[in-house]
């Protein structure tokens, strides 16, 4: 009989925190900027420079810990992780090993397999490294320390997931929580959220874990799903052939859909961790915890209920809108401006989601402003533009964030309500379509639809359809 | 008037009185360097042009009434592990042979804000690792009392320059005795403040949890005045402490009545040179005569301080010195293939043997499987030593002993036997482990004419007690100039 295997998966999730300044100095964390323009003696590892902890980092880490049911370590410390690499200016990373800030939490996920809790082992704070750029022209590597010292938290889960679906659900849940907290934008494609997957397989029914591998370089949920499937298959094949899974770190190539061994446990580095002597322990008082807890913004569940109660939205709408922080933010801001919650909801749920899908974009890549969305909703709702025109203009709002009012004005797209102009167009259509006219007169009610359509077309979509209908009936 | 024969604050008073200008004071120091440096070799870098320009600016501000402190216009030297913007800072190492910092260390900045004029950077043991200033990549500094002998270390350049009167005062750093021991060997006065009193920002770290910057000068008044200027809370150093009282010169009272002084028997056992012992005990007797209550007691645990120190200091040093890799600044090997070889060659060629020894020791004690046995145990020992001192300070205001077991050894006599050199730190190291303030001041000379240092130790944040006792003792003797000073 064929053997059944169970996949056991744990996650290590790095999240870049949304602070204005770096974790140990006052340099900006802003993305971009000329190489090494966001640097100082501290984040470039100059001799004699010393780190000073950014309090905001501790608060973000605490907020994530509290929102995921963790215990806050009220006496926590930083440790040095020693390794040589040029993107790491001090050749050690300031991280937390012995006393991480959060421990023993969990998130609840729901998949086709039902509800379950994925336990969080710990969350610790650490600094990001710089970036190495290889200059092919000069055949040299150059270092940009703009990212060096950008604050990160690493969330380490217990090996509680059994499928790619559960992993994605867990990551989506974490992302939603962190986005709602405002602790990070959690963009996988930009690297502000990065997940490493620890995976092993074992024969169904066994207690003991198999040998696990760690998979890196996973830049999208799809890549994660494919990598899990690929690694599961690879490990089962090895076991079926009577071979062993090696404890190693592997790198996923999503284009080729294969992974490569990066380093094995034998040549794993000894990081020689020890307490960071340049920083004092962080004492977190009960009051501070209470303060951070009190500042916790409205989370998804609360928003979901409020959208239904305050805005009278159907549960379905509330679910979709709160399913992504970008949607919720856009919805609330646009609704505040135009006071038409259901209309705003419709534009987000139908047209926005369709365009995102067509363009292969994630919700957090939306760049239309609430003002322009609100203006569009008002234009459409007041009948200033027809539905057809509204959809066309919306595409431009979505793509280029244009001002729809101005655009409609400049391009003369407002609905034509001028009786004379409509009458002239209708007369023209009647003259050019004697067959349909005859059909209508013979009692074919449907023929009027065709004639309305032709008139609308002649008016380039801008005609008031109700008036066109009325005028045609009069003329016939 | 021989300006360099004055103490820093005496010179400062003449400058305030407009009898001497800052430019004249700096010129006198540069002249002295010109005459003596070939013999003493106390400096790695002398910044003649910069010093003259700064002196001119300081004099302008003195005349404008902006600088009224006792250090304005006074020529000072700074140990070469303190960053000075635009002025080469090497740690006496080849790996930083060309390093020019983009910023100035906080302690130096404060000294300059008080109007002191930095004239150069003093020689030291490479990365402050050593007790003789012989591990400097740029050659040893000589003891100005007898140039066949070492000045001690690691702040040997600062202490020798002060003793030889090449500068009026200097800054040093002390991780395990590096201010106190060379002060003793050179016959000058030095203070290692309570950990956290002087900002470490810009001090190129050796053992981060032990390092402190402190003053070296001809007398207690100068040291107290300098400490008053360089001490203070600094938000850039997380280990900096906001103290209530920084008015150290208030303790210059010449009154030790009622001061309780303890003499640890452990400090006077085997290995202590009899002449040093006699001089130190005589100093204790003098303090008793001045009205202090002096008695012997058992401190214990002293023998564990050295191994604990070398484990902790080297562990931190191994990590602190990892950044010197040839990538960003300093020395890079001329030829290499690939990144690993670049690292390996740059570091192998850039660091000297003592630094390599300590990096290896530090890497070893932190390596997987050894952490608990060495590093953790050393941390526990450190905590026990602190407790031992806490108990002692319940009974005494001051602990009195020698700064070093002998006077300055001959050049070349120490390097062959590093363990022996490490053991020379026995009286100073425990102070750093416990974070305490310590001080060394001259208390006599041996038959060969070499200075003997008296060490005073107080509880954390009790520098004023140290200064009070040291000042009272100092009033009973004359300052002894080394033969080279008067040239």
Description:
- The complex is a heterodimer of chains A (476) and B (487).
- In chain A, helix 9 (370-381) packs antiparallel against helix 10 (387-400), helix 12 packs across helix 14 (447-458) and helix 12 (419-432) packs across helix 15.
- Chain A has helices spanning 55-67, 164-181, 221-240, 286-294, 300-311, 315-322, 325-338, 341-358, 370-381, 387-400, 404-410, 419-432, 434-441, 447-458, 465-475; strands at 5-16, 71-72, 75-76, 79-82, 92-95, 102-111, 114-127, 131-135, 140-144, 151-157, 193-203, 213-216, 248-253, 258-264, 274-275, 282-283.
- Chain A is α+β, with helices and mostly antiparallel strands and 476 residues long.
- Helix content of chain A is 40%, strand content 20%.
- In chain A, strand 8 and strand 9 (140-144) form a beta hairpin.
- In chain B, 39% of the residues lie in helices and 13% in strands.
- Chain B contains 15 helices and 11 strands.
- Chain B has helices at 8-16, 22-40, 48-63, 106-113, 156-163, 180-186, 220-230, 274-289, 302-320, 338-350, 353-366, 372-395, 418-423, 426-433, 463-474; strands spanning 43-46, 75-79, 117-122, 169-174, 189-192, 212-217, 260-264, 293-297, 398-402, 438-445, 451-458.
- An 11-stranded mixed β-sheet of chain B has the order 1-3-2-4-6-5-10-11-9-7-8, sandwiched between helices.
- Chain B is globular.
- The two termini of chain B are 14 Å apart.
- The model of chain B has no long low-confidence stretch (mean pLDDT 96).
- The chains are: A alpha+beta (476), B alpha/beta (487).
- Chain A binds chain B through residues 41, 44-53, 80, 82, 84, 86, 89-92, 141, 143, 270, 272-274, 277-280, and chain B through 81-83, 89, 91, 96, 99, 101-103, 105, 200-205, 207-209, 235-239, 315-316, 318-319, 322-325, 327-329, 339, 343, 363, 366-368, 371, 375.
């Amino acid at each position: 009989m064929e053997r059944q295997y169970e996949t056991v998966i744990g996650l290590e999730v790095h999240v870049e925190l949304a602070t204005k300044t770096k974790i140990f100095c006052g340099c900006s964390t802003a993305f971009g900027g000329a190489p090494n323009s966001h640097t100082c003696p501290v984040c470039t590892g100059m001799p004699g420079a010393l780190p000073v902890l950014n309090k905001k980092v501790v608060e973000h880490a605490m907020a994530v810990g509290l929102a995921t049911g963790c215990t806050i370590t009220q006496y926590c410390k930083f440790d040095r992780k020693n390794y040589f690499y040029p993107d790491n200016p001090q050749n050690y990373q300031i991280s937390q090993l012995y006393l991480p800030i959060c421990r023993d939490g969990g998130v609840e996920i729901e998949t086709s397999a039902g509800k379950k809790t994925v336990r969080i082992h710990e969350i610790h704070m650490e600094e990001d490294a710089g970036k190495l750029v290889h200059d092919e022209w000069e055949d040299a590597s150059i270092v940009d320390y703009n990212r060096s010292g950008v604050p990160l938290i690493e969330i380490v889960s217990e090996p509680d997931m059994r499928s790619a679906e559960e992993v994605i659900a867990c990551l989506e849940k974490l992302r939603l929580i962190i986005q709602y907290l405002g602790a990070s934008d959690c963009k996988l494609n930009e690297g502000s959220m990065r997940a490493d997957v620890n995976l092993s397989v074992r024969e169904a029914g066994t207690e003991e874990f198999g040998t696990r591998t760690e998979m890196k370089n996973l830049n999208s949920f799809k890549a994660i799903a494919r990598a899990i499937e690929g690694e599961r298959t690879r490990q089962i094949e090895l076991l079926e052939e009577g071979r062993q899974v090696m404890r190693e770190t592997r790198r996923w190539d999503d284009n080729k859909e294969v992974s490569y061994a990066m380093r094995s446990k034998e040549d794993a580095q000894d990081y020689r961790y020890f307490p960071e002597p340049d920083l004092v322990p962080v004492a977190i008082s009960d009051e501070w915890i209470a303060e951070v807890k009190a500042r916790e913004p409205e989370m998804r569940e609360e928003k979901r209920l409020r959208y239904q109660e305050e805005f009278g939205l159907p549960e379905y709408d509330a679910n979709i809108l709160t399913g992504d922080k970008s949607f919720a933010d856009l919805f609330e801001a646009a609704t505040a401006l135009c006071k038409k919650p259901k209309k705003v909801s419709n534009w987000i749920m139908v047209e926005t989601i369709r365009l995102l899908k067509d363009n292969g974009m994630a919700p957090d890549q939306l760049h239309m402003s609430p003002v322009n969305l609100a203006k569009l909703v008002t234009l459409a709702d007041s009948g200033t533009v027809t539905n057809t025109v509204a959809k066309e203009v919306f595409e431009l709002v979505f793509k280029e964030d244009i001002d729809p009012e101005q655009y409609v004005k400049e391009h003369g797209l407002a609905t034509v309500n001028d009786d004379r102009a409509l009458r002239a167009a209708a007369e023209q259509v009647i003259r050019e379509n004697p067959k349909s006219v005859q059909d209508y007169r013979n009692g074919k009610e449907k023929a009027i639809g065709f004639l309305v359509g032709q008139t609308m077309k002649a008016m380039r979509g801008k005609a008031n359809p109700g008036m066109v209908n009325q005028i045609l009936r009069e003329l016939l | 008037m021989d300006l360099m024969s004055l103490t820093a604050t005496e010179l400062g008073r003449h400058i305030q009185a407009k009898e001497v200008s800052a430019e004249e004071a700096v010129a006198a120091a540069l002249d002295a360097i010109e005459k003596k440096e070939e013999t003493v070799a106390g400096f790695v870098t002398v910044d003649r042009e910069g010093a003259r320009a700064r002196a001119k600016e300081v004099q302008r501000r003195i005349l404008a009434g902006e600088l009224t402190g006792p250090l304005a216009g006074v020529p000072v030297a700074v140990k070469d592990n303190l960053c000075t913007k635009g002025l080469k800072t090497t740690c006496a190492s080849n790996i930083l042979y060309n390093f020019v910092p983009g910023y100035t260390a906080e302690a130096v900045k404060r000294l300059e804000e008080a109007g002191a004029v930095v004239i150069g950077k003093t020689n030291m043991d490479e990365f402050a690792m050593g007790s003789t200033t012989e591990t400097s990549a740029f050659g040893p500094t000589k003891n100005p009392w007898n140039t066949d002998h070492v000045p001690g270390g690691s702040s040997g350049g600062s202490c020798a320059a002060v003793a030889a009167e090449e500068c009026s005062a200097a800054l040093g750093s002390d991780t395990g005795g590096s201010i106190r021991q060379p002060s003793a060997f050179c016959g000058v006065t030095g203070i290692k403040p309570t950990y956290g009193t002087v900002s470490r920002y810009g001090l190129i770290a050796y053992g981060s949890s032990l390092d402190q910057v402190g003053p070296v000068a001809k007398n207690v008044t100068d040291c107290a005045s300098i400490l008053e200027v360089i001490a203070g809370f600094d938000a850039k150093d997380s280990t900096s402490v906001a103290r209530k009282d920084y008015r150290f010169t208030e303790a210059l009272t010449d009154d030790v009545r009622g001061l309780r002084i303890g003499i640890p028997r452990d400090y006077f056992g085997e290995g202590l040179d009899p002449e040093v012992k006699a001089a130190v005990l005589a100093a204790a007797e003098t303090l008793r005569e001045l009205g202090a209550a002096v008695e012997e007691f058992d401190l214990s645990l002293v023998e564990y301080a050295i191994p604990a120190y070398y484990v902790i200091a080297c562990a931190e040093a191994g990590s602190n010195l990892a950044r010197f890799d040839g990538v960003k600044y300093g020395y890079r090997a001329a030829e290499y293939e690939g990144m690993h070889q670049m690292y390996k060659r740059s570091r192998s060629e850039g660091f000297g043997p003592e630094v390599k020894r300590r990096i290896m020791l530090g890497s070893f004690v932190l390596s997987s499987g050894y952490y608990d046995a060495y590093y953790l145990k050393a941390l526990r020992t450190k905590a026990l030593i602190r407790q031992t001192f806490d108990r002692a300070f319940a009974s005494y205001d001051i602990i009195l002993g020698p700064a070093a077991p002998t006077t300055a050894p001959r050049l070349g006599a120490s390097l062959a036997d590093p363990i022996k050199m490490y053991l020379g730190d026995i009286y100073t190291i425990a102070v750093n482990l416990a974070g305490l303030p310590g001080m060394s001041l001259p208390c006599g000379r041996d038959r060969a004419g070499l200075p003997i240092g008296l060490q005073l130790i107080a509880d954390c944040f009790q520098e004023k007690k140290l200064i009070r006792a040291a000042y009272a003792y100092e009033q009973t003797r004359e300052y002894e100039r080394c033969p080279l000073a008067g040239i």
